[in-house]
Amino acid sequence: MTDALRLSRSRTFPVGVARAFDAVLPLPLPQLFDRRYAALPAIREVRDQDGEWGTVGQTRTIVLADRSTMRETLVSVERPASFGYRIDQVHGPLRPLAASIDGLWAFEKAGTGVRITWSWTVHPSSTATSLLMPALGRMWQGYARQALERLEELLVT
Fold this sequence. Notes:
Shape: globular
Helix content: 10-25%
Number of domains: 1
Strand content: 35-45%
CATH topology: Alpha-D-Glucose-1,6-Bisphosphate, Chain A, domain 4
Structural class: alpha+beta
Largest sheet: 7 strands, antiparallel
CATH superfamily: START domain
Number of strands: 7
CATH class: Alpha Beta
């Protein structure tokens, strides 16, 4: 199998680390990822989630605007520093590209606020599709920028 694609994007917000962590972890995904970017669709709904998102081992089904789905599993919660998840069972246009995705949200003190970094490690489905990883990476950077801009609206107002 080919090397994974590692991506990350950060932004600083004028709120405390714990407050940011506590707001982001349970945030409804359609509220944060409400716009598409290039070929990456918005998230329209989340299904099969039991209770508030925040317990290691929880799973949910993410439904995108193009009706494709993927399963997300919460794999780590280290309050207030980070939480991680794994996306698999990818169906739809991303399926040929990504076998799975490891995601991480990290929170660190930055001056009087917090620096939030969102990272993805994309595990390509095959060597052939690994050739498309740079294009996926460029799209993801725009998608992440939009999400962090939206997060500022949600955290600061």
